Amino acid sequence: MYKILLLILGWLAMGLACLGAVLPILPTTPFLLLAAWCFARSSPRFHHWLLYRSWFGSYLHHWQTYRGLPPGAKWKAIMIVLVTFSFSLWTISLWWVRALLMVILVVILAFMLRIPVIDPLQQNDK
User: I want to staple 32 with a disulfide (CB 3.0 to 4.6 A). Which of 17, 66, 78, 103 is the partner?
Assistant: First the structure.
């Protein structure tokens, strides 16, 4: 029963992560990490799929191996967040929603800027 609950939670987190990839308010990374954690404890097959076959796999594998992002990934992610939030801020006319989006943007950017980038020289050292 425990494995089934983890499997359901893992797929729910994976679905939310996919939505988070296109929706500016919903984060992607925490849901991907939750899905990887759930799959690691419930289904080796789905965990392997997530790490080696999914669209997010290379980033998850890099995170689990080196506890950081590959070079270039951080700035690409920051640019995507800025573009999607800019579009949202441009289309929303309610001032309080804009203010909420700005607060969320600052929190997300602060989190993203703290994530380390592991370059190829550091990868060889580990």
Answer: 17
